[in-house]
């Protein structure tokens, strides 16, 4: 595939670009959202898990006899039982046969919180009573928590079958790295550590499974599981035929990635339902969500070097990263694909060396968290640009401006082979500087330091937000991938009924709190000239479904726009054929206008969509033979711009082409006694191409920034030196409250994509992808008199104080 | 191991109920599972997230930390009681207009807390609202549009809100 | 996270409550606000076989000033104390209570409940120590008072007999020339304090005549800190700093993920300084 044809976005839009009220809201406002926990089936039972208190241990035996006597307990299924009831879970890792992931641990546990048995009971209360009576005999093994220790021979093996703790290692070079460093006048180097945090939506994952042994059909309701084409893997786990799994999506109370592909809860519920012959709900509670949810975020150490000319031009980037994946590696090293999509940021860096070692440790595994590994790259790169600026005594604005890719260089191919479709970075920076009152705060910083001994700092970052991932980023890591999948489609069915009322059917678990119904409705409204609130949006289960991938990687709006565009085109083609017959005019003499079809330039010779629809549904015999009854169409929209990697992997192809950009500027104050960071001002200017609903996008900018604040200052999954999990409650895993997040002043800039409907780019992740770099830059700036540089995220108050003490304060 | 049931009589959104419950049943579980009022949500069961906030005798409480039996004789108000049939409460209209929700999971607790805030302070400031909702966590919005929604609701309830240009036609 | 089963009791009078506690002893815990006990029960860290719910004991819902004492009954909620006119007579108690959790927690949680729960991070026990208050512990056998200094006996432990219930707490009313402050450092807004300081200073002609500090987050339970070195001195910046450092020098706070021993001591010194400054200001001193 080559680049798609470039689109001209000239249409003046009626609905795209309007901040209308969201279509999905009334049910949520009334408390009738229909979340998974709100649902039940007759005779439904509940599951609670027996979870390991040890980080690494053999399971010697499990005695379930006392648990089975607990009133209300119906069954106890151990990991050993599960070996015959369920196959391993779907796993996109490098070598699943050697790092096998099961829904319950069988021979040994690999992290505190791993499930070893499932108790099925009449109520969740009774299930937990049963859990308390299950007796597990563990034989503790040596624990591995340090990823750099994991590299050493002789370290405890998390997966004996693998023979090592290294799940994957490889170094890639893009461009002529040696020449680029030879060109440099100086290098700056650092070691940086981004620690793991995670989505923790207020609603955990939950699944209800109902196995009908009469038909062999397994019906599952879950607040997850898109990637519908891949669900045969879950069916395989459950040992049922792939076409007998019908998965019904349910609105999710937040996800931020963690409900993208939450297979384990669905598998646990499904296995239990099949085993006991009744519907079964497995609802994670908060402890499950913290300890055993399989979606911890990136946990990455960087050794990084930037090559620069003395005028500030960046010539080369070289890094080695050690990624602590925890005990399993369900998504392989896709997080680094996300990084490679925008590894050079908005800068004209010509050469990159990217080394990666992915290691296993005794922690819960990583999954997806807003940014999926690219937010870490943004943070690292901006830390290095700031170090370069400090070293060269350059203003942080100037070093960025001079390295920016220029507007006339788009579409711009970065050294990895990915493309940035469009962009214009200087106006975004200028707008942010103006909104943030840069000069005012610089003066205030000095004045408050001198007059009141306060420590204020300004931080500025300019970073990318890639959107709409291609499947290739999951396998271009291997010269001979086992499954070089290439499709990540999204589908829609649009139905116009006999009265002209429109229904759109979505096929993925599209609703996480993003606005898929509003997006679909606004786009359909734009095409059919109807009020978006008149469009009915429904969801189909996979049993009736078309392929769909759901939200993730900021893809949903672009992909549903493509699906809608395709379906609308088919409907309009049929509508034109019918109108041609009704108006007795050639199709070429007709035009769409104001919700109907008319003879070009002649508003009198016209049929509304309603006229056409009723004819289509009811008056078949008055239409030409070849026109079938009905007025609906489906469209499967595949990724519009993906190219294959080269055999030598020096060019990874195009895999994340729709490239947004943002500038964040924050002003912080650091209390040097306690290390506490508070915000005095915060500006976020984002370019996500054409905005469909600006208010909705702003909501994501602000919410994402709040999560970035959490990851930067508060949130961390802590495993101590014994692998004991210290973050098993909200007393320890700290989410920001309303008083911990400042007012975020939002600005917008639009460089439409030449490749997408209306020029839309994805924008849902950006806030979290920018905030950490800005906050760290501001902390360094506030502590500049002490010569402190923060290198470890989160920058907890104690880490800041340690940095101050090391600098002599 | 089950303990003697205890009878609890309570009024929820103006409707009287009588149930025999296992005394360890949390109020939120009685509302959701016992009475089918699933609008009040569970986020943490440890009193941190505030998603389970309801009004008991007009005062906001965490219904995950209150036993159902402790609500005996009480009047409980939940999100389901806000709207009057098809007509939304001004708070619900405001949250809709200002996009004070994304996933909606924290929203019922926010609405009930907001109702209490406005009852005691009908003309709050952005600062006072932001502080008053600090016991209700939201993971989606970053709180800003929630603050704007509560302020908008205050205007509506004082009768001075402007017409929405984006409200759907009924 | 659901609690283990228990038998529920709701006494209708204090004597009935005491009878129950006498009969059930250590197998029964008192349930007041439940804001601390219920989370522990949900994690099954506490699994009492019996709960004695005292929320029906209206006779224990009071805030009463009598002469030089302010007494608060065991059913009094944090929010009720904050609204009680008499509570102004002991500002330090009110200052501490204002820091407890969020609105919903203060609507149910009780002042006495927080004391009886004795979380080493909790604010009210620290204030009680700084005030040298006392609790009334009742049983069917006797009613006695326990001074704050004798009450806290390790993490989540108070020195009560198995059959005793705390029915009220009493603190002295603020004397003339007294200023108080409660200062805390927490990671998130109104989260559990990492370190909290309750400070009381009495000034006499510009010189400190009394100084008292209670700390939370600095030991296995709330503790006092010795700032007696300030007595007799004008509260200058140097004197306050020296007193803060001396007060912390011998403490060995237990470490957890929110703060190591060394970090807590550093923060504590800064907070004692800030609390003393604020207390001095509130006492009418110039800072």
Explain this structure.
The complex is a heterotrimer of chains A (809), B (170) and C (287). Chain A is an alpha+beta fold. Chain A is 28% helix and 23% strand. Chain A has 20 helices and 29 strands. In chain A, helix 10 (334-340) packs across helix 11 (374-392), helix 11 (374-392) packs parallel to helix 19 (766-782) and helix 16 (556-583) crosses helix 17. The mean pLDDT of chain A is 97. Chain B has two domains: 6-81, Ubiquitin-like (UB roll); 90-157, [2Fe-2S]-binding domain (DNA polymerase, domain 1, Orthogonal Bundle). Helices cover 30% and strands 15% of the residues of chain B. The mean pLDDT of chain C is 97. Classes of the chains: A alpha+beta (809), B alpha+beta (170), C alpha+beta (287). Chains in contact: A-B, A-C, B-C.
Which secondary structure elements does this structure contain, and how are they paired or packed?
The complex is a heterotrimer of chains A (809), B (170) and C (287).
Chain A: H1 25-29, E1 45-51, E2 57-63, H2 65-69, E3 73-78, H3 79-85, E4 108-109, E5 115-121, H4 124-133, E6 135-140, H5 147-150, E7 166-174, H6 177-182, E8 186-194, E9 206-212, E10 217-222, H7 232-237, E11 245-249, H8 263-276, E12 280-283, H9 286-291, E13 300-308, E14 314-324, H10 334-340, E15 351-359, H11 374-392, H12 396-403, E16 412-413, E17 419-420, H13 425-436, H14 438-452, E18 456-467, E19 490-496, E20 502-506, H15 516-528, E21 536-539, H16 556-583, E22 590-593, E23 596-599, E24 602-608, H17 609-618, E25 632-637, E26 658-670, E27 677-687, H18 694-714, E28 745-748, H19 766-782, E29 792-793, H20 797-806
Helix pairs in contact in A: 10-11, 11-19, 15-16, 16-17, 18-19
Chain B: E1 6-12, E2 15-21, H1 27-34, E3 53-56, E4 59-62, E5 75-77, H2 90-97, H3 107-120, H4 126-132, H5 144-157
Parallel strand pairs in B: 1-5
Antiparallel strand pairs in B: 1-2, 3-4, 3-5
Helix pairs in contact in B: 2-5
Chain C: E1 7-9, H1 14-24, E2 28-31, H2 37-42, E3 50-53, E4 63-66, E5 69-73, H3 78-83, H4 91-97, H5 103-108, H6 111-117, H7 123-131, E6 134-138, E7 143-147, H8 148-151, E8 165-172, E9 178-186, E10 193-204, E11 207-216, E12 223-225, H9 237-249, H10 261-282
Parallel strand pairs in C: 1-3, 2-3
Antiparallel strand pairs in C: 4-5, 5-8, 6-7, 6-8, 9-10, 10-11, 11-12
Helix pairs in contact in C: 4-7, 9-10
């Amino acid at each position: 595939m080559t680049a798609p044809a470039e689109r001209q976005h000239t249409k003046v839009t009626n609905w795209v670009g309007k901040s209308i009220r969201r279509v999905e809201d009334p049910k949520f406002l009334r408390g009738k959202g229909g979340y998974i926990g709100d649902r039940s089936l007759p005779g439904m039972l509940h599951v609670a898990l027996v979870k390991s208190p040890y980080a690494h241990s053999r399971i010697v035996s499990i005695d379930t006899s006392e648990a089975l006597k607990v009133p209300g307990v119906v069954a106890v299924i151990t990991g050993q039982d599960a070996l015959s009831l369920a196959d391993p879970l779907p796993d996109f890792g490098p070598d699943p046969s050697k790092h096998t992931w099961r829904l319950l641990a069988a021979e040994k546990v690999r992290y505190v919180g791993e499930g070893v048995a499932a108790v099925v009971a009449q109520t969740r209360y009774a299930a937990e009573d049963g859990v308390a009576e299950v007796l597990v005999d563990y034989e503790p093994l040596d624990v591995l928590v340090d990823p750099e220790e994991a590299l050493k021979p002789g370290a405890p093996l998390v997966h004996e079958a693998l023979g090592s703790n290294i799940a994957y290692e490889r170094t890639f070079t893009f461009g002529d790295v040696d020449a680029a460093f030879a060109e440099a006048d100086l290098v700056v180097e650092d070691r940086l550590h981004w620690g793991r945090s995670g989505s923790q939506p207020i609603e955990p994952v939950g699944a209800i499974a109902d196995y009908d042994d009469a038909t062999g059909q397994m019906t599952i309701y879950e607040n997850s599981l898109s990637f519908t084409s891949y669900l045969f893997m879950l069916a395989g786990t459950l040992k049922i035929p792939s076409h007998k799994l019908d998965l019904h999506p349910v609105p999710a109370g937040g996800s931020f990635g963690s409900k993208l592909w939450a297979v384990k809860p669905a598998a646990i519920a499904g296995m239990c339902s099949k085993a006991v012959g009744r519907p079964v709900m497995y609802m994670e509670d908060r402890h499950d969500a913290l300890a055993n949810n399989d979606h911890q975020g990136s946990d990455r150490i960087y050794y990084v070097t930037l090559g620069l000319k003395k005028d500030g031009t960046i010539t080369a980037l070289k890094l080695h990263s050690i990624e602590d994946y925890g005990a399993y590696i369900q998504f392989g090293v896709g997080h680094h694909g996300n990084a490679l999509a925008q590894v050079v940021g908005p800068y004209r860096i010509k050469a990159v060396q990217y080394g990666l070692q992915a290691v296993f440790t005794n922690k819960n595994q990583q999954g997806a968290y807003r940014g999926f590994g690219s937010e870490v790259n943004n943070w690292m790169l901006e830390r290095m640009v700031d170090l370069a600026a400090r070293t060269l005594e350059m203003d942080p604005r100037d070093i960025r401006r001079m390295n920016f890719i220029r507007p006339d260089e788009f579409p711009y191919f970065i050294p990895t082979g990915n493309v940035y479709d469009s962009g214009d970075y200087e106006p975004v920076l200028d707008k942010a500087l103006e909104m943030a009152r840069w000069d005012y705060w610089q003066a205030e910083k000095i004045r408050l330091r001198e007059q009141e001994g306060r420590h204020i700092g300004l931080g500025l970052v300019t970073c990318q937000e890639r959107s709409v991932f291609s499947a290739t980023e999951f396998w271009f890591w291997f010269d001979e991938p086992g499954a070089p999948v290439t499709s990540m489609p999204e589908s829609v069915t649009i139905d116009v009924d006999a009265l002209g009322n429109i229904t759109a059917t979505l096929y993925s678990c599209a609703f996480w709190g993003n606005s898929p119904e509003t997006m679909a409705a606004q786009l359909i409204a734009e095409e059919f000239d109807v009020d978006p609130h008149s469009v009915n949006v429904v969801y189909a289960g996979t049993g009736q479904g078309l392929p769909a991938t759901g939200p993730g990687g900021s893809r949903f709006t672009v992909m549903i726009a493509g699906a809608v565009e395709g379906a609308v085109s088919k409907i309009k083609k049929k509508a034109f054929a019918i109108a041609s017959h009704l108006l007795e005019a050639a199709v070429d003499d007709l035009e769409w206008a104001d919700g109907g079809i008319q003879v070009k330039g002649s508003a009198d010779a016209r049929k509304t969509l309603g006229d056409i629809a009723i004819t289509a549904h009811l008056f078949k015999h008055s239409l030409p033979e070849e026109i079938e009854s009905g007025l609906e169409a489906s469209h499967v929209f595949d990724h519009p711009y993906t190219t294959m990697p080269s055999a030598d992997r020096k060019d990874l192809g195009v895999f994340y082409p729709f490239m947004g950009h943002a500038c964040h500027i924050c002003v912080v104050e650091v209390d040097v006694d306690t290390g506490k960071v508070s915000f005095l001002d915060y500006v976020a200017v984002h370019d996500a191409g054409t905005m469909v609903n600006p208010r909705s996008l702003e909501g994501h900018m602000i919410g994402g920034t709040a999560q970035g604040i959490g990851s930067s200052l508060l949130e961390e999954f802590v495993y101590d030196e014994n692998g004991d999990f210290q973050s098993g409650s909200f007393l320890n895993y700290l989410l920001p409250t309303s008083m911990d997040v400042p007012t975020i002043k939002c600005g917008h800039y639009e460089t439409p994509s030449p490749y997408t409907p209306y020029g839309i780019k994805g924008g849902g992740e950006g806030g979290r992808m920018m905030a950490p770099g800005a906050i760290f830059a501001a902390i360094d700036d506030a502590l500049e008199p002490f010569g402190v540089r923060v290198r470890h995220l989160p920058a907890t108050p104690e880490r800041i104080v340690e940095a101050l003490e090391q600098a002599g304060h | 191991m089950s303990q003697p049931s205890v009878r609890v009589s309570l009024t929820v959104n103006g409707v009287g109920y009588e149930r025999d419950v296992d005394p360890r049943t949390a109020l939120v579980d009685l509302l959701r599972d016992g009475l089918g009022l699933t609008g009040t949500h569970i986020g943490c069961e440890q009193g941190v997230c505030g998603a389970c906030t309801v009004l008991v005798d007009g005062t906001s409480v965490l219904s995950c930390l209150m036993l159902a039996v402790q609500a005996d004789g009480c009047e409980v108000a939940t999100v389901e009681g806000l709207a009057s049939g098809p007509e939304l409460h001004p708070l619900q209209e405001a949250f809709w207009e200002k996009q004070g929700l994304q996933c909606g999971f924290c929203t019922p607790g926010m609405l009930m807390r907001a109702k209490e805030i406005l009852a005691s302070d009908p003309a709050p400031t952005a600062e006072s609202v932001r502080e008053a909702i600090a016991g209700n966590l939201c993971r989606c919005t970053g709180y800003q549009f929630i603050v704007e929604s509560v302020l908008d609701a205050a205007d509506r309830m004082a009768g001075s809100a402007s017409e929405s240009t984006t409200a759907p036609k009924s | 996270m659901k609690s283990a089963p228990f038998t529920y009791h709701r006494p209708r009078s204090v004597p009935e409550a005491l009878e129950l506690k006498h009969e059930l002893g250590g197998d029964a815990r008192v349930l007041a606000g439940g804001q601390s006990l219920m989370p522990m029960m949900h994690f099954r860290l506490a699994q009492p076989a019996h709960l004695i719910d005292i929320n029906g004991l209206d006779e224990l819902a009071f805030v009463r000033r009598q002469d030089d004492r302010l007494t608060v009954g065991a059913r009094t909620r944090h929010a009720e104390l904050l609204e009680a006119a008499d509570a102004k007579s002991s500002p330090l108690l009110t200052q501490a209570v204002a820091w407890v959790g969020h609105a919903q927690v203060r609507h149910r949680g009780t002042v006495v409940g927080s004391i009886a729960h004795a979380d080493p991070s909790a604010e009210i026990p620290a204030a009680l120590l700084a005030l040298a208050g006392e609790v009334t512990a009742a049983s069917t056998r006797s009613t006695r008072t326990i001074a704050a200094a004798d009450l806290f006996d390790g993490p989540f432990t108070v020195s009560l007999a198995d059959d005793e219930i705390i029915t009220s707490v009493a603190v002295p009313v603020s004397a003339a020339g007294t200023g108080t402050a409660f200062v805390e450092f927490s990671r998130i807004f109104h989260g559990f304090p990492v370190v909290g300081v309750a400070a009381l200073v009495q000034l006499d002609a510009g010189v400190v005549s009394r100084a008292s500090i209670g700390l939370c987050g600095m030991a296995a339970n709330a503790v006092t800190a010795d700032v007696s070195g300030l007595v007799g001195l004008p509260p200058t910046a140097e004197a306050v700093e020296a007193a803060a450092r001396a007060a912390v020098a011998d403490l060995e706070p237990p470490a957890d993920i929110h703060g190591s021993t060394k970090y807590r001591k550093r923060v504590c010194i800064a907070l004692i300084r800030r609390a003393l400054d604020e207390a001095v200001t509130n006492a009418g001193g110039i800072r």
